[in-house]
Design a protein that fits this description.
The chain has about 210 residues and is α+β, with helices and mostly antiparallel strands. The protein has 2 domains: about 70 residues, Glutaredoxin, CATH 3.40.30; about 110 residues, Up-down Bundle (Glutathione S-transferase Yfyf (Class Pi), Chain A, domain 2). Bound molecules: glutathione (GSH).
């Protein structure tokens, strides 16, 4: 049995839940982290010394880091769905997944912190604008890459679409009135049509976690 440790609104947990759903893997999930707390407990730190979510346990095997988990889930699924067969296709999936963790995810997180979780110091409009511009520059890269394509790798939905869409959904919740990017919007409509995908509730109903 696969157990996913992490609450369902955390972006990195959502990646893992969505991957399980795409692969039709059965799993149980334990609410931990964010509003549920518990990530600093001794028992959780024994699973994941970073005190971060998600972590999975699978028949005694423990794994953390959302993208490592996603790749593991593909590896244990017959047919290796969601990843192309050849080395170049696999490298391209890894490129976009790494780009999301290294760049897009940080940019959206920076904006979430300024807009939704400012802490004691109220951010200035200039700080918010700068964070928004950083993010928009990355979204423009993604929009260009998606132009003329159904999915980020071309004709097939792959593992790489998952983290990108999780972040684009967060942007849409943060800036619902933004006119958007044409190719990203077309792609996101296809994402929304996937039965395995569950978007975040609109802002006001719930906030993007992080
Ligand atoms: N690189 C890690 C990042 C994990 C991470 O930072 N997760 C966030 C939630 S998305 C977290 O644990 N936040 C603390 C909390 O929710 O208590 C991954 O991809 O799994």
């Amino acid at each position: 049995m696969i157990t996913i440790w992490g609450h369902e609104n955390a972006p990195n947990v959502r990646k893992v839940i969505w991957t399980c759903e795409e692969l039709r893997l059965s799993y149980e999930r334990k609410d931990i982290g964010g509003p549920f707390g518990g990530v600093d407990s001794q028992s959780y730190r024994a699973l994941n010394p970073n005190g971060r979510i998600p972590t999975i346990t699978h028949d005694g095997f423990v794994l953390w880091e959302s993208h490592a988990i996603m790749r593991y889930l593909v590896a244990i699924t017959e047919g290796q769905a969601l990843v192309p067969a050849g080395p170049q296709g696999q490298a391209r999936v890894n490129q976009w997944m790494d780009w999301q963790l290294a760049h897009l995810g940080h940019a959206i997180r920076a904006l979430v912190v300024l807009v939704l979780k400012p802490g004691d110091t109220v951010p200035t409009p200039a700080q918010i604008d700068a964070a928004r511009m950083d993010l928009l520059a990355l979204l423009a890269i993604l929009d260009t890459a998606l132009t003329g394509r159904s999915w980020i790798l071309g004709e097939a939905f792959t593992l790489a679409d998952i983290p990108l869409a999780i972040n684009y959904n967060m942007w849409k919740v943060l800036a619902p009135d933004h006119e958007g990017f044409p190719a990203l919007e077309d792609w996101y409509a296809r994402i929304m049509a996937r039965p395995a995908y569950k978007p975040l509730p609109a802002r006001g109903a719930a906030r993007p976690a992080g």
